[in-house]
Amino acid sequence: MKTVAIIGLGLLGGSVGLAIKERAGTIVTTGYDRDAEVRDRATERGLVGTVCETAAQAVDGADLVILCVPVGAMEAAAGELAPQLKPGAIISDVGSSKESVAQALARALPGHTIIPAHPVAGTEQSGPEAGFASLFVNRWCILTPPEGVEKEAVKALSDFWASLGARVEIMDASHHDLVLAVTSHIPHLIAYTIVGTASDLEEVTRSEVIKYSAGGFRDFTRIAASDPVMWRDVFLNNKGAVLEVLGRFTEDLTALQRAIRSGDGDTLHDLFTRTRAIRREVIDQGQDDERPDFGRKDHS
Amino acid sequence: MKTVAIIGLGLLGGSVGLAIKERAGTIVTTGYDRDAEVRDRATERGLVGTVCETAAQAVDGADLVILCVPVGAMEAAAGELAPQLKPGAIISDVGSSKESVAQALARALPGHTIIPAHPVAGTEQSGPEAGFASLFVNRWCILTPPEGVEKEAVKALSDFWASLGARVEIMDASHHDLVLAVTSHIPHLIAYTIVGTASDLEEVTRSEVIKYSAGGFRDFTRIAASDPVMWRDVFLNNKGAVLEVLGRFTEDLTALQRAIRSGDGDTLHDLFTRTRAIRREVIDQGQDDERPDFGRKDHS
């Protein structure tokens, strides 16, 4: 892996570029974003070695091309660069849904080596200012290689992500989509919903919602500040798994609603005790900050 | 306000004691917890000046008594200390629901000066180790004085909370309960639910849920690690407002479910854009950490 082209220079693309610079400095990077302002800012921040004026220029000669665009934009972005791809180049991405991306890339780039990937990492911020080199450290990156792709290519992409500090897992695209519906997509959908609900109530003012948000609500506002286009595309492109998990969530919420209505404290207490143990495991496995309140500076 | 008695020495009670020591050091503090181990630990940490062996001892001569116990335990706790209360003492609390607490305290302590209060602050941790002096700084503390309570007493309690760094607001108990249902109780209920749902799915293992939790789920595990007894009591004691707001949330979630099913990206995008603005306001008003990801040390 000598040269890597990054298409889309927002939070993820920018972080990939910065992580390469910091941790795998021998790799030459090029990049492209369809927004000229983003390209200018990417140049200023040095997100990649060379910011190109077209996607085709960026991928010219690249061993690995990583599409860092919303999942709904993958097919069009891949189509733009098709004519210039080096034979044998690996095409990958960082999208949050994988079955739809695999299909989109297969349509746009028939005959190419396509290995969809998803680094499970991010923040609520977006754009060329948001990226940073350590985003992937100790985070999992899931590869979903289609049947028949060369093992050497999968190994090369795994090694690449490991070199950025990530831990790599391989699974099939449909299982990925179900797992991520649980650990990412439904949490985002719920956060967006409750923030919307809170700001639409007639009986409670928006100012009150903001003032008293430290009671728990503010955590949801962080997630609900995530990039609107990216998330719209995730829900439209992982519809099946999202609706399935949402159905389960709704059933469980209805059961709790009934417990509250009937004054069934034991049911509530049992659940609240079980969920506490999960937090412990998340921390023990290095997947969250162990400090209270995520280490917010409230408490400094 | 020369002497303050704190009944219950967990996260909130301990933080009140430490905040007094740090910011209002002329006030003499006593404390009591019904758990002997908590009393020992409170003594070691110096959460209050004197840890007493009974609630009655702790409140003997106190100008202000603050009940820092789960809202379901308020009436019993207040009953224990009734015989020893100094005439004119103010009785307050830190509970998350206020109508039920006002009624419980009125039953247990007829004729006393009762001013329920709720500092909107906390972390997911609990117990005598969890408290810290700056918990209330720049957080709102809501007082819900019943009709007829003396203005001087309300002023004294307001000044007390301000001296600990809090901003004070006065509202009636039923409005408090609705506002907090939105900004705290429903967020907790939803977090508990999704963490439970995720850990009960057959198709996705618990290990997968933990591994890929950085996609959003881990935020919910923090809230769902909150004290089980405290939160059971909140839901049982603020049933009306919780069920009302939950109904609104469920309606909104159903509408989003329909938008996803029908591929209505505009509805999704519109909501996700609106919710982003709320985050900005939460930060602008000093109610959350502006750093990405709450400043988690992932990114150090």
Short description:
2 copies of one chain form a homodimer. Chain A is α/β, with parallel strands linked by helices and 300 residues long.
What does this structure look like?
The structure is a homodimer of 300-residue chains. Chain A has 300 residues and is an alpha/beta fold. The first copy, chain A, contains twelve helices and nine strands. Chain A has a six-stranded parallel β-sheet with strand order 3-2-1-4-5-6, sandwiched between helices. In chain A, helix 5 (99-108) links the parallel strand 5 and strand 6. In chain A, helix 7 crosses helix 9 (217-223). The longest helix of chain A has 28 residues, at 173-200. At the A-B interface, helix 7, helix 8, helix 9, helix 10 and helix 11 of A face helix 7, helix 8, helix 9, helix 10 and helix 11 of B. Chains A, B: It catalyses: prephenate + NAD(+) = 3-(4-hydroxyphenyl)pyruvate + CO2 + NADH. Chains A, B: Its EC number is 1.3.1.12.
CATH superfamily of the largest domain in chain A: NAD(P)-binding Rossmann-like Domain
Oligomeric grouping of the chains = homodimer
The number of domains of chain A is 2
Radius of gyration of chain A: 21 Å
Which ranges of chain A are low-confidence, i.e. pLDDT below 50, for 5 or more consecutive residues? Answer: none
Under the CATH scheme, which architecture of the largest domain in chain A would be assigned?
3-Layer(aba) Sandwich
Identify the CATH class of the largest domain in chain A: Alpha Beta
Largest interface (CB within 8 Å) is between: A-B, 113 and 113 residues
End-to-end separation of chain A in angstroms reads 44 Å
**DSSP summary: helix tally of chain A:** 12
Largest sheet descriptor of chain A: 6 strands, parallel
Shape estimate of chain A: globular
Helix-and-strand structural type of chain A: alpha/beta
> Which fold name corresponds to the CATH topology of the largest domain in chain A?
Rossmann fold
In spatial order, strands of the major sheet of chain A run 3-2-1-4-5-6
Percent of residues in helices of chain A: 40-55%
Secondary-structure element sequence of chain A? EHEHEHEHEHEEEHEHHHHHH
What is the β-strand count of chain A? 9
Estimated share of beta-strand residues of chain A: 5-15%
Overall residue-averaged pLDDT value of chain A: 97
Pathway (chains A, B): Amino-acid biosynthesis; L-tyrosine biosynthesis; (4-hydroxyphenyl)pyruvate from prephenate (NAD(+) route): step 1/1
Protein name (chains A, B): prephenate dehydrogenase
GO biological process, one term (chains A, B): tyrosine biosynthetic process
Family (chains A, B): Belongs to the prephenate/arogenate dehydrogenase family.
